[in-house]
């Protein structure tokens, strides 16, 4: 069972993951965007983490919404706005929740997915962040229903997100600057899906570390 304090730690870990992978995201984005994705994600998640780190709040939804608001202010770019929208959607979906069981964790990432989709108007298969997160959400839902341990589910979800990212090679981009490249966009990996991949890797790492600490 995850508490509000765990969400703060997850946000901090995501900020660290994005910071470590700044150059990686910049490189991916240089082929389809304006090469600022690494900076945007690093600064955005750092701002989100900082905003809630000292909050005396046990409502997970309120924390997630506050993190999203902080990110939207810090990085008002397209991708920054999408990621902030995901967090704010989580905030609305989990308002009043003071802990997350495995099903609520699945709900967390489903709400994140829905928030990004609602804001960006993309569909799965359009070669975006959604293609990285979609499979991971499905795994979390199925494993929660089957009663599998969260650490196992998170690891499988991370693997699904990585596969989703890799599978964007071959897709035709429908949004952003990549769409302007037409058929040539099929040869490229989507940097947005890479962000989803990193988010799920980071979540899996956090859950694994928490499980080891408990044991």
Instruction: Tell me, briefly, the overall form.
Output: globular
| Overall radius of gyration | 16 Å
The structural class is mainly alpha
Q: Element order, helices and strands?
A: EHHHHHEHHHHH
Please indicate the percent range of residues in DSSP E strands (runs of 2 or more).
Answer: under 5%
User: What is the straight-line distance between the termini?
Assistant: 14 Å
CATH class: Mainly Alpha
Count of the domains: 1
What is the second-level CATH architecture?
Answer: Alpha Horseshoe
The averaged pLDDT comes out at 94
From the 3D structure, determine the CATH topology.
Answer: Serine Threonine Protein Phosphatase 5, Tetratricopeptide repeat
Largest sheet, strands/sense/barrel:
2 strands, antiparallel
Number of strands: 2
How much helix is in the residues?
A: over 70%
Strand ordering within the main sheet: 1-2
Summed up, the helix count is 10
- Give the full name of the CATH homologous superfamily: DhaL domain
Low-confidence stretches: none
What does the secondary structure layout of this molecule look like, with pairings?
Elements (H helix, E strand, L loop, with lengths): L1 E2 H17 L1 H9 L6 H17 L6 H15 L3 H16 L5 E2 L1 H19 L8 H18 L3 H17 L9 H4 L11 H24 L1
Antiparallel strand pairs: 1-2
Helix pairs in contact: 1-3, 1-4, 1-10, 2-3, 3-4, 4-5, 5-6, 6-7, 7-8, 7-10, 8-10
């Amino acid at each position: 069972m995850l508490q509000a304090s765990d969400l703060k730690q997850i946000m901090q870990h995501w900020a660290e993951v994005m910071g470590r992978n700044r150059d990686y995201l910049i490189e991916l984005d240089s082929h389809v965007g304006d090469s600022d994705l690494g900076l945007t994600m690093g600064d955005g998640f750092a701002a989100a983490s900082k905003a809630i780190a000292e909050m005396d709040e046990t409502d997970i939804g309120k924390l997630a919404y506050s993190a999203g608001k902080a990110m939207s202010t810090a990085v008002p770019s397209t991708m920054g706005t999408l990621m902030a929208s995901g967090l704010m959607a989580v905030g609305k979906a989990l308002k009043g929740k003071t802990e997350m069981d495995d099903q609520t964790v699945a709900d967390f990432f489903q709400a994140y997915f829905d928030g990004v989709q609602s804001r960006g108007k993309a569909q799965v298969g359009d070669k975006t962040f959604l293609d990285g997160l979609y499979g991971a959400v499905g795994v979390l839902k199925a494993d929660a229903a089957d009663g599998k341990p969260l650490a196992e589910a998170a690891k499988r979800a991370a693997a699904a997100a990585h596969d989703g990212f890799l599978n964007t090679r071959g897709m035709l981009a429908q949004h952003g600057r990549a769409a302007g490249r037409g058929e040539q966009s099929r040869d490229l990996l989507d940097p947005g899906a890479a962000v989803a991949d990193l988010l799920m890797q980071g979540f899996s790492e956090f859950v694994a570390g928490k499980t080891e600490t408990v044991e």
